[in-house]
Amino acid sequence: MQTQTLQQRNTISLQGSSLIVTEFFQYAIQCILYQRGVYPSESFDKKKHYGLGLWVTNDDGLGTYLKTITEQMMVWTDQGSLRQMVLVITEAETQEVLERWTFDIDTNKEVLAGGPLPDKPDSEIKGEIMAIMRQICASVSFLPLLETRCTIDILVYTDSKEAVPEEWEDSDAKNIADAEVVTLRGFSTKVHSVKTLVAFKQSEDVL
To answer: How far apart are CA 143 and CA 201, in angstroms?
Structure first.
């Protein structure tokens, strides 16, 4: 007798996909900040999510900052106007950009136009996100050690024609000259696709 396994599929709405994407950004940013030592380790608590033990901030100021940003990104993602989110790590004293984590977002135009909703198993989406988070955790193996106090900026690129909220301001791209670039994994909900890469200033020891 032949045995078949049924994989539960999930219809993905625009709003549901936006929630998945912005939740991923929130966890990914915190994971990067912890792994790169931008904030003290005691500013984070371990929480299980995506089947992994991830570090989330217990710092009220950082938590409020990230909540404000991800809530607005949720609005833009729902509109299909969010194109890119960039986490920039800068040396505090010199303002030199040391790392630039880029997340490119592509939105299914058929869904935006009111077309049929795609479906994809939750387990597949979760598995793809788990793979990215594991790569972020492993990034300490190839990224130079951050030995000085650092600050962060979060840049967002959109196609939105609506007014930008007052707490947001224009910024330059904060690129890194002659950067090393490593492409990481991506994931797709079939409504949104996210691609990830990190650019960094190479350590002078290997120049």
So the answer is: 9
Q: Which of 54, 86, 33, 45 has the alpha carbon at shortest distance from 198?
A: 86
Structural tokens at position 79: 């509109």
**Which one, of 174, 175, 193, 177, lies nearest residue 185 by Cα?**
193
Could you tell me where the DSSP H helices lie in the chain?
Answer: 14-35, 60-79, 109-112, 122-138
Phi-psi region of 163 (alpha: psi -120 to 50; beta: other; left: phi over 0): beta
Residue 169 pLDDT > 90: no
Under DSSP, the state recorded for 55 is E
First to last CA, the chain: 63
pLDDT on residue 2: 47
From 190, 136, 175, 162, select the one nearest 25 (Cα to Cα).
Answer: 136
**Bigger pLDDT: 69 or 168?**
69
Rounded to whole angstroms, the Cα distance separating 99 from 87 reads 8
Q: Is the separation of the CB atoms in 58 and 45 below 8 Å?
A: yes
Distances (CA, A) of 131 to 16, 172, 206: 21, 31, 29
Measured distance CA(21)–CA(85) in Å, rounded: 11
Instruction: Please state whether the predicted TM-score (pTM) of the whole model is above 0.90.
Output: no
Q: Is 19 a residue whose pLDDT tops 90?
A: yes
